[in-house]
Structures are given as structure tokens and as C-alpha cells.
Amino acid sequence: MKIFLLLVSVQICLISAGFPEHEKDPWYWRGQAQKTLQKALSLQHLNTRVAKNIIMFLGDGMGVATVTAARILKGQLQSKSGEETQLEMDKFPYVALSKTYNTNAQVPDSAGTATAYLCGVKANEGTLGVTAATVRGQCNTTTGNEVTSILRWAKDAGKAVGIVTTTRVTHATPSAAYAHAANRDWFSDNEMPPEALQQGCKDIARQLVDNVPDIEVIMGGGRKYMAPQNTRDIEYPNEPKANGTRLDGRNLTEEWRKKKGNKNAQYVWNLRQLKQLNLKEVDFLLGLFEPHDLMYELDRNRETDPSLQDMVEVAIKILRKNPNGFFLLVEGGRIDHGHHEGKAKQALHEAVEMDKAIGIAGMMTSERDTLTVVTADHSHVFTFGGYTPRGNPLFGMAPMLSDVDNKPFTSILYGNGPGYKVINGERENVSNIDIHYNNYLAQSAVPLRQETHGGEDVAVFAKGPMAHLLHGVHEQNYIPHVMAYAACIGQNKEHCKTHYPLSCSASTVLATLSTLVLLLLFSLLC
Q1: Which of 136, 201, 207, 199 is nearest to 178 (CA)?
Q2: Average of per-residue pLDDT across 54-80
């Protein structure tokens, strides 16, 4: 224990020694605040253009604590203390809060929330693309209660559309964009009960091919749900868990390709194939890079597996060829998985990777005609604290011992999850284990095999046309209505017929009217 205290003392001294000297000067902070003030004042000139493009980044499970921790991690990966670092989403001018509850759940799941922020209506937990009249697991409550998503609204308006995810493409977030299901777990017909099949419900993978057949870009994981049962996977032929699952014998990947007719439709399953594509000639792209979800970013094979940045760059290059613009849904889905598994290091590196993808999208598009929204579906019971000093290693120890059990503890903790461990009737002493291991399970207060979601509001970051409409505390289902309004698609189109100026503010309009009045008076007097 003395050694632990000595190490903590040395760590604090080292951190203190690196304290930025300029931060001691009050004028540094005053100057910084004045620059921020000027930026805020410039926002009085609202961007009321019609959004040609819409990009939605969804950090699955990316609560506010995760955003803050990812910010610090990003800085520390750049050899900075971290707290002063800016994420790409931090630079967005408009921020709101989203209320994440499902119609039947105080703490939500990813399916009901996806229906809210993509389809514009709140729904029951575990259901996809349907109203709250649909009961989870009951197929016969689906028909007549289907709702379409902003991806469909954009496609109907003539825009190109795409889905990019680090999970399987049939997972909760992406599937709400195209599917209508009473159960989020119906990935293929193998996961469906016999009565659901008899009643005519379709599995999610089948709906991906059938419901919106002209999705230009689909990238993520989930090969196994597209292939006949026991079909060996092309990448893992000797791993039975990677085999195809479909009971109907259909090869949905081949069906997807055939449905494109004479169009240039490309299917790829590794990074090499993705890089070899001539994107100028590709009309449709299906990329399925794993049998299930993609690997965590920390475990990704850089030679064979694309990063989220890679996929976003390819998607935009294909979608922007449409002169009418595009809608792109991007999910950093494994943030959520890392938290569920109690692996904070995996979750936070996934969040940093998504932020890099946000930066790529920003460089490839213009805020002038592209509305970009970054948000989360829900949070997690993840936290970090312990009165850590400035620059404390994010995955390090708190600078004190517990005043109850006299043991050290890490800054990062979970309210519940698999990290709960008792040895000889006492909390595990973390000074005896490698807390910097990628798959280290952060300690939790309550033992669970899987850590749970949190119920607090999540942040919404926005930039581009009509981004100012995301400005306060909103119901989660409000988000797609704003995106649709900005792009003149879906329900709200009347305002597009009035031919609003491309960009104006109240002061600009008044100034223009005043000038016209003066010119009219001058012409009359003359």
C-alpha cells in the first residue's frame, strides 16, 4: 500500500510539473472567453438555407460522461493533459438535450430510441420502425402500425441514402432506418419464433433487401444473417459461430446484387477490396466486413478491416454524386458494447474513432449546405471521478484510498456490470492488476453480466442549415423532424414554397426593408 501511495504521489508531482504556465495569467482566460463570445454573437446570422445533405452521427450509448471522457482521451493520445482538448462535435455551434425514454421504459433501449430519432415517433423498447401500438415479440401487432424513417423520406425525395455502422447492419440503430419489427432480435428467420413466421413477419436482414431496395451504401457487419444456414464464412471458414444462419436458404447478398440489374453494384468484405473500388463508377455498395459486429477499434486488423473513418469517406464519395444531395446515417455502435462489457477503454476509443469520422465528414462537406447532427440514443451507468488532478491518466487511479476499505480505486467506475469482484469478502485491490489492459473490467457497484443503460438526457450537437432549431431540451423524436424540415423532405414542405432567402437574420431583413423604403421615398421626392 505504501508503494501505491508513493506512485500516486509521484504521478501527481509529474502532472503538476506539466501545468501550462499561460493558464496562470487571467488574461489568457479572458481572451479565450472574448473569442468565444464573438463566435456566439456571429450566430445571430442564422443559416436558413435548404439542407442539400444531411449526416447523422449516432454514438450508441454515448452519454455526456462518455463525451467528456472521450475528449480527455483524445487529448492524452496527443500527449496533452486532455481536459482542454476539443472534440470535433465540441466545435458545433448548437447544442441541445434529448429526452431518451421509450413509451414503456424510463431507461430506454436502442431500438425504441432509434425509432424516435429516425422515424419521428416514440415507441416501445425492443421494437423497430413501428408505433407504440406494437408489442415487443407479438408479430400480429405490427401490421398497420409501421412508420417510415428519414432515410425513406430522403429516398422518396430523390436523394441518395446510406448507412454505415460498426455493428451488424441488422442491429437496432441501422435497422430502424428501413425495417418494421416487433422484436429487434429478429436478425434472420433463425431468430424468429415459428408463430411470427406463420403470421407473415419478415426478419430484419430480409427487410434490408426488400423494404428500401435502392439504398446506395450499406456498410458494417452481419454477413452471417444474409447467408443460408451452415454456409461457411469466407473469412472464418473453420469457425462454426461465423456460419450462415438463414433457415429459408436464401443468399440475400446475391439477391441484393441481382436486384440492381444493370447498375454497378459492388459487394466487398475486406479493406483491400474496398480500396480497389473505382468509386466514380460505383452506383451501389454493400460492405459486410464481419460475420457479426466489426472488431473494436483497438483490436482491428489494419490490413483487412476498414475503420469508421474509411467507411465514412467512401460513403460520402459515392453519395455526393447525386445532384439532389444525400442522407447518411453513421453509427459508432460499439461504444455501447464496450460499456455493456465493462470495458471502458474499448468504449472510449470507439468514441474517439467516431469523432475522427465526424472530422472527415466535415472536411468533405460544407456547413453551408450540409446539416450535421451528432447525438446518442441513450447513456450508460459509466462515470469517472475521485478528485483526480489535472492531466490524470484517464484509465488511472484516483489520488486517494477509500476511507472505508482503505483500498485504491480507479477514476473510471460503473454503477453496475461485470466488473464487480469480491475476494475474501472484500472489494478487489486494483493495485495488484493491470488496469491499463484493453479489456480490463472497471469496477462496478452491483454485479451484472452486462452493464446497463442510463436514463439521463443525452447531448445533441448540430451545425449547418437550420441547426439552430436544435436549441433546448427536446423529446428525442423531435430530431428527425428538424432534419426533414431543413431538407424540405417528409412532412414539412410548405415553408419551402415561400422561397426564403438563402440566409438571413431579423436584423438583415429590417436593414434591407429600411433601405428599400428610403430608395422609394427618394424616387418619389425627385
Answers
A1: 207
A2: 98
CA dihedral for 214, 215, 218, 224, sign (positive or negative): negative
- Which helix or strand (DSSP H or E) is residue 400 part of? strand 397-401
Q: Give the model's pLDDT for residue 368.
A: 97
As a whole number of angstroms, the distance between CA 192 and CA 137 comes to: 9
Q: Are 314 and 274 in contact (CB under 8 A)?
A: yes
> What nine digits make up the cell of 298?
483497438
149 is catalytic: no
**Active-site residue identified among 110, 188, 307, 411:** 110
Smallest CA-to-CA distance from 327 within 202, 168, 433, 214 is with: 214
Which of 165, 99, 495, 119 lies closest to 331 in space, CA to CA?
165
Report the distance separating Cα 258 and Cα 260, nearest Å.
5
Report which of residues 152 and 39 the model is more confident about. 152
Which residue's C-alpha cell is 432506418? 177
pLDDT at 393 over 90: yes
Q: For the packed helices 344-364 and 308-319, what is the interaxial angle rounded to 10 degrees?
A: 30
What is the C-alpha to C-alpha distance for residues 70 and 73, in angstroms, rounded to an integer? 5
| Cβ–Cβ under 8 Å, residues 118 and 54 | no
The pLDDT tens digits for 235-249 are 999 999 999 999 999
- Nearest-10 crossing angle of helices 344-364, 64-77: 80
For all residues of the chain together, what is the average pLDDT?
92
Range scoring the smallest mean pLDDT among 44-48, 414-418, 519-523: 519-523
User: Per-residue pLDDT tens for 91-118?
Assistant: 999 999 999 999 999 999 999 999 999 9
422-to-113, 280, 391, 414 alpha-carbon distances in Å: 35, 58, 30, 15
Mean pLDDT of 318-340: 98
- What is the per-residue DSSP string for 165-196? EEEETTSHHHHTTT--BS-TT-SSGGGS-HHH
pLDDT of residue 521: 52
Name, in order, each residue with C-beta under 8 angstroms of 253's C-beta and a sequence gap of 6 or more: 223, 226, 227, 267, 286, 288
Span between the terminal Cα atoms of the chain, in Å: 93
Q: How far is CA 425 from CA 404, 417, 419, 443, in A?
A: 14, 18, 15, 15
Q: Are strands 458-463 and 265-268 parallel, antiparallel or unpaired?
A: unpaired
Angle between helices 479-487 and 110-119 (to 10 degrees): 30
pLDDT band, very low/low/confident/very high, at 493 (cuts 50, 70, 90): confident
Q: Are 310 and 292 in contact (CB under 8 A)?
A: no
State yes or no: pLDDT of 252 exceeds 90.
yes
**Rounded CA gap, 409 and 428, in Å?**
9
What pTM did the predictor assign? 0.91
Percentage above 90 pLDDT, the chain: 84
How far is the CA of 417 from the CAs of 70, 173, 397, 446, in angstroms? 20, 23, 19, 6
Which stretches of 320-424 are DSSP H helices?
334-340, 344-364
Cell of 523: 424616387
